Amino acid sequence: xxxxxxxxxxxxxxxxxxxxxxxxxxxxxxxxxxxxxxxxxxxxxxxxxxxxxxxxxxxxxxxxxxxxxxxxxxxxxxxxxxxxxxxxxxxxxxxxxxxxxxxxxxxxxxxxxxxxxxxxxxxxxxxxxxxxxxxxxxxxxxxxxxxxxxxxxxxxxxxxxxxxxxxxxxxxxxxxxxxxxxxxxxxxxxxxxxx
Length: 195
Hints:
By secondary structure, the chain is an alpha+beta fold. 48% of the residues lie in helices and 19% in strands. The longest helix has 29 residues, at 88-116.
């Protein structure tokens, strides 16, 4: 299908191989295999968005068994960026983020999102020096907190502290987030996940 939404292998590698690999249980690995991700075989060049979402559905309760869905998906979003940092492209991208600072980094979130898939689009509207709204065309998950974790961890790489990311609108595909942060050295990161 020419307009099929695809998630590229580098995203699957970043999250499921590099970041989650050591934390997946045998049951989790079997569950991923059942929905089309056999981690004992080479990755395909891309996976459909629906497959990616099914991978997240399996991984969230496997890696975060005692967490609420919001907290688990937030954690997966953070882990995605942590795994991405371990790739050659991710190291280069995150080195740039460290120089851009939080505001410049928010403007580049769309580049990071598009590096991992063929469909995402992001728009940022600044609300002040340390606050913005960010609209994402497709949060790539059943739960918008995956993107909250992705945004928070990306901002952390830019030197921001006191990061607070929360969804303020979600239609099942697109979402708008309110993002706030503090200058370096003020407060620790807080997850806006409903417990």
